[in-house]
Amino acid sequence: MELSDEEGRAVRAAMAGERRLLEAAVRASPEAVTELLDPEFTEFGASGRRYDRTSVLAVTSAVEDDDPGPEVRGLSGTLLAPDVVHLTYVTARNGSLVRRSSLWRRTGERWRLYFHQGTPAGPARDARE
Fold first, then answer.
1. What's the total number of domains in the chain?
2. Taking 50 as the threshold, does the pLDDT of residue 43 lie above it?
3. pLDDT of residue 69
4. What DSSP letter does each residue of 8-20 carry, written as one string?
């Protein structure tokens, strides 16, 4: 299915934000992460823990600047409403896969991550994408 110009811009903006959040230099900067997270942000991590904006900043600020981050596979997005984009993808890191789902919400001209969930998918060699 082909996206309209507006849908394409929205999905690309959310994808760009998601990729930025996976960059070690961004994750190591509380200011950069704060700019990308919605004030009402919630995450259910692959560990099973629940995070809000404040608690996720404690985790991301511990990332080393030279951390290569996970490999991203199959990133795709859908515009659910004029100001909401749903992204799905898989990350591979240290031999494990995690299926990921993110909701990005636009407020004004800014796209911010509103919700994220990571679900372990098992060893990279055994899981199907």
1. 1
2. yes
3. 78
4. HHHHHHHHHHHHH
Mean pLDDT, residues 9-29 = 94
Q: Which domain holds residue 96?
A: 5-123
- Across the chain, where does the E strand assignment appear? 37-44, 50-52, 71-81, 84-93, 96-107, 110-123
Residue 108 belongs to a domain: yes
In a domain, 129, yes or no: no
Q: What is the CATH number for 111?
A: 3.10.450.50
Ranges of H-type helices in the chain: 5-21, 24-27, 30-36, 53-60
Asked whether residue 17 is assigned to any structural domain, the reply reads yes
In this prediction the pTM is 0.87
Identify the CA nearest to 71 among candidates 107, 105, 46, 96: 96
Q: Both tokens of residue 91?
A: 């990350």
Confidence bin at 47 (pLDDT 50/70/90): confident
How many alpha carbons fall within 13 Å on the CB side of residue 29?
13
Mean pLDDT calculated for residue range 34-59:
92
